[in-house]
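request received
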Amino acid sequence: MTEFRVFRFDPEKDKVHCFGTYEVPWEKGMTVLEGLWYIIDNIDGSLAFRSSCRAAVCGSCAMHISGERWNGKYRLACNTLIEKLLANGEGTITISPLSHLPIYKDLVVDMTNFFRHYESIKPYLIPSQTPPQKEFIQSPKERKKIEQSIDCILCGACYGSCPVAGTNPDYLGPHSILKTLRFYNDTRDTAKKERLSLIGNNKGLFRCHSIFNCQICCPKDLDPAGAISQMKMKLIFQKIKGLMGLG
Amino acid sequence: MERNPDIRRDYVVKMLYKKYDVVVIGGGLAGLRAAIEAQSQGASVLIVSKLHPLRSHSGAAQGGVNAPLANNPDSKDDSPEKHCFDTIKGSDYLADQDAVEIMTSSASEIIYELEHWGCPFSRTDDGRIAQRPFGGAGFPRTCYGADKTGLYMLHTLYEQVIKHSIDVITDFMVTFLIVEDNTCYGLMGIDMAQGRLETIVARSVIVATGGAGRIYGKTSNALTSTALGMAIAYWAGVPLKDMEFIQFHPTGIISKHILMTEGCRGEGGHIVNKDSKRFMEKYASKLMELAPRDIVSRSIATEIEQGRGFVYPADGSGYVHLDMRHLGSAKIMERLPGVRDICLDFLGIDIIKEPVPIQPVQHYTMGGIDTDINGTTVVNGLYASGECACISVHGANRLGGNSLLETLVFGRRSGDAAAQYARAQRQKSYLPQSAINSLSKFYESHFRKIAQSSGKEKHIVLKKELQETMDRYVGIFRAGADLQIALDKVRTLKNRFKYLFAPATGLKFNCDITCHLELEAGIDVAEAIIVGALKREESRGSHSRRDFPNRNDTGFLKHTLCYYNPKGEIKVSYKPVTITKYQPEERKY
Ligand SMILES: Cc1cc2nc3c(=O)[nH]c(=O)nc-3n(C[C@H](O)[C@H](O)[C@H](O)COP(=O)(O)OP(=O)(O)OC[C@H]3O[C@@H](n4cnc5c(N)ncnc54)[C@H](O)[C@@H]3O)c2cc1C
Ligand code: FES
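response:
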């Protein structure tokens, strides 16, 4: 048995949030997500959380999870094994929703702001010429440059973990900058300058205080913090080129 | 007594949303491709989806998408005709050949289009889209982006949706289509974020709600791949076609049933039994592990039945090994990093060093909402595409990599057809009074029932029983007696469903209510699967009857159509298969 302490809140009915506690029987290999479903199926069908693929690829189930053995972290409930959280097979697992976003109910947050920022960086390929008859040619070496950033599943763990996003709702967030890098580094894209200007401002690159939470928590082991420093370098480089009259 | 005050009738007809020319239900690959096309034809378009589009199950597709690009040195002689023939033979001749021809002749062009939109495919040394071998295909034809092809494709299409500013409503579960006089005028559903019932009015509606794998317990599908999307069309009078054809994928990991892509074998992985023997040489000596899925799954099941598998103690089921060690760590890290992570996360196994315990799992519904080659259904203004639809291009057995292709090709065609239809209706009023009346009727029959439910049955119990029944009696091998047991069981469940109790109140992300609706859909669609299977007294593709082991072209070279009948038994009829160039032959690999 383990005890799940789960954040409960319905803004229309409750003044403040509380934590519900539920006894969940578990076995080796069981995930936190399966524990949450156990609660819905057997204890309280009114608990709300998001999930879909249960294979760490759809990005639905990012939440803050802490146990006896691991410090709390924003991670995916579906690939977090209960056994890794508990010390001697017992103890409490505490679960809260992603931070900095309005709560619809319990663990379900309204991701509108998160996606609005992402959409504001023009997250689509802007190719130059009319496309070739077949595919654009891109060597394996050129593709390597986007290899990490294309794997982002936009789960929001980095955004939830970033204190700057908490105090500045206008901050574009680590995910938006990682996605900018994805297109900036794509040899088929031609909007480098525009992309830099979309994030080279107080809402973007200059808002980041290099706290690196995003790097620590990314469930896909990507490096949004690294992307931010890379983009900062590119911006500086472009400014210098501009000053020298080359840009 | 009204326990659920949010389920109020006045919400039903308020219609807070704008009216649209085309409303697409579902934000997976099929839905997004349809929406992009409809908008480019000048229609006003809305995508409504219970999940954010990027959470759709399309994103979990791993292995790749077929197109005869001939980029691989081994596929120089590939062509649309060969792709067409492989697909038809793979379908055990049940696919409609005109539909397959359309799919394979548009394949290359639609993949180039996706690449031009930015899809990050893996590359050959000379910078072209990389292609790998897949089951049942004569050439390496499957275009891939490592083992995350679906994720890359889904993000690429959603990026186009952003670029073209197409309206999207998420967290909206559609529960009912508004159909009056055989014409669709829109839909009704639960806005889960706002916690209320809502109506959306449209000139045409495209259902693109994906598969129904969760009718089964052992499935590779997402938790959200329930049958509700198929059911809303079925309830509205559109027949479900060929539902008995359920694909079992040979390689799902034990316990979690998460998929190991066919790409594992495409890259050279072996399947071995407990004696470490590559048994596929017995069953398909030429193609071995890369025979079509129905054949490989049956072979694994046979090995297990005959005692040459391992036993998984937790549930007593049998399994065999997928061995990729000989591929070496460089190839695995480059081509199969995603499945490696899955095995590490969920089984604690590193595929570089150890074989993976696998067993066949439910994977795909070849059947679905009956449509023609443009996604048109028998109801005016109602279209369907993607896994929920059956055109049919997969017939009795789908080849790996053809489903992603289908979502693009037929998503686009249905978007086009729906936009044309909407344009032709511009002069007419959106929603006749009679349709509003039928809405109220539905409200009475459905939501009041839930709101006032007072029975003792729990949805989880019924759902588990449904899944166990399907796993056990409607699996890889079937028999008349077993199917009859399953049918009786499902009909009992149907009856018990009336006494379901949903204790949680409100409509805001209320799992008690959404599970309730999805269960009802699951039971009805399961019934169609079983009835179709029972009546099809032959073995063809994925449908393998022990009591009728041979294919019977004289009796069953035809599509099954199941019609919903609220008052009693399902009505079944048949329609002919379209044959153009290829006469049915014996299927050997
Ligand atoms: C693990 C896995 C791997 C696969 N790999 C491959 C592969 O390599 N190659 C290949 O060709 N095929 C593959 N397939 C098959 C292929 O991925 C699917 O058939 C295809 O992606 C289905 O796309 P879709 O757009 O029809 O549905 P989905 O992507 O499932 O989208 C369904 C959409 O409908 C919405 N929806 C559903 N019901 C409702 C409702 N009632 N109200 C509102 N919205 C609703 C959902 O929110 C979702 O947005 C794979 C399948 C699985 C399960
Ligand atoms: S459920 Fe899809 S990422 Fe966890």
